[in-house]
Specification:
Blueprint (H helix, E strand, L loop, with lengths): L12 E10 L1 H10 L12 E11 L5 E11 L7 E5 L17 H10 L4 E5 L16 H22 L6 E7 L1 H15 L6 E8 L5 H11 L3 H15 L11 H8 L6 H7 L4 H4 L2 H9 L5 H8 L12 E5 L8 H13 L4 E5 L8 H17 L4
Parallel strand pairs: 4-5, 4-6, 6-7, 7-8, 8-9
Antiparallel strand pairs: 1-2, 2-3, 3-5
Helix pairs in contact: 1-2, 3-4, 6-7
Length: about 375
């Protein structure tokens, strides 16, 4: 097989690092260690690479980012699966530095099944050193689509008969990102790839109407703190009047990608209402949108306002409290009303931390059925 590093990327790639080769047996073990359950297919060994490339940052200027690429050890590559990862506050744990369960486990699931596997780190993670613009879809979509263009070159350079089939899936933050990428590609696709299906898992699609209330009620202090810090940095707005001191002065530095989960749990208040000001909470309960910039930023994350053309299946866990099932149910209802090609899948009574391992085997089976012409 022609080496990935020998292909002509037309200046798109700055660096390719080989991370290792995994056998079919190793792929199966990795999936088991990651907690995988259900019927899965692992027909191939595969190679993992970290790719460094350029994309547009928040200011529109080029910035260095990275991503994980899994290449099946076969020339009969089925197509491309793009995985949009979940929330990550700690840069050393980026998906391009693969570990269990996400990087190695999901690469095994799809690259081991014969797909070229792509997973962008997003701006602010991986090799990127700026703050991650959490839930900022323009930069997220840009980093994913630019990696897809690199993946297309790999597919065309290595596959015996490349057909350019593309499948999207992702978890939590990556569920919303999966919908954002689908929307972008169906509006204007700069690649030669053909989007066949999208499968967001436990995604948040309406933070302003559903997610904000849920985060406050369920004391989701880390994800909500991350959102506040990232919005402040991305939109250049102070947290005064929104976040209590001393947290308002410290929050952005705590979520700059250098602090791990233990640090955040130790330093954030135990309850969300101890993080937010009394004025903000009073306005929120009264339906008053103060400060306006924060609510505008929330509405910019909404991903239930388009009409999917390629089939989209919402997968959710019925006992998820971090991302309430209402996020998927509401987005499904709104998209169906618009005439979207959507379906809703209850993956069982599982919480947020467990739902991906229960949803991914049926997602893999669905992609395989589409690829084989059975759907």
């Amino acid at each position: 097989m022609r080496a990935v590093g020998e292909l002509d990327y037309g200046g798109r790639v700055e660096r390719i690092e080989a991370l290792g080769r995994y056998s079919r047996a190793e792929a199966t073990v990795l999936l088991q260690l990651a907690g995988g359950s259900g019927k899965i297919s692992t027909e191939n060994g595969y190679y993992l690479y970290r790719v460094t490339y350029r994309t547009a940052g928040v200011d529109g200027e080029p910035t260095r980012v990275s991503g994980l690429v899994g290449v099946p050890a076969t020339r009969d590559i089925k197509g491309i699966v793009s995985w949009q990862h979940g929330t990550n506050t700690y840069r050393p744990e980026s998906i391009s530095k693969p570990s269990l369960p996400e990087g190695l486990g999901i690469a095994a699931l799809f690259a081991g099944d014969g797909y070229l596997f792509l997973a962008a780190d997003y701006v602010g993670l991986g090799v990127s050193t700026e703050m991650h613009p959490y839930y900022h879809w323009p930069t997220t979509v840009g980093s994913v689509v630019d990696l897809l263009a690199i993946g297309e070159i790999i597919l065309n350079g290595l596959a015996t008969a490349p057909d350019g089939d593309l499948f999207l899936t992702g978890f939590s933050q990556g569920g919303g990102a999966t919908a954002a990428v689908q929307r972008a590609l169906e509006q204007q696709n700069p690649t030669g790839l053909r989007l066949r299906a999208a499968a967001p898992i436990a995604g948040a699609f309406n933070l302003s109407e559903i997610g904000l209330q849920n985060a406050i009620e369920n004391d989701d202090r880390i994800n909500f703190g991350y959102l506040l810090a990232a919005f402040s940095d991305t939109y250049g707005q102070p947290l005064d009047g929104l976040v209590r001191e001393p947290y308002a002065a410290q929050l952005t530095a705590w979520f700059d990608g250098t602090k791990d989960g233990d640090f955040l749990r130790d330093h954030l208040p135990e309850h969300v209402d101890e993080l937010l000001t009394a004025e903000f909470l009073q306005d929120f309960q009264a339906g008053v949108e103060e400060p306006p910039w924060f609510y505008e930023a929330l509405r910019a994350t909404t991903m239930d306002d388009y009409t999917p053309v390629a089939p989209l299946r919402f997968y959710f866990g019925s006992t998820d409290t971090i991302v309430t099932p209402e996020e998927s149910r509401s987005a499904f209802a709104r998209m169906r009303e618009r005439g979207g090609n959507v379906a809703l899948v209850d993956a069982g009574p599982h919480g947020h931390d467990d739902i991906a391992v229960y949803a991914l085997p049926p997602v893999q089976g669905w992609f395989d059925a589409i690829e084989a012409g059975r759907e």
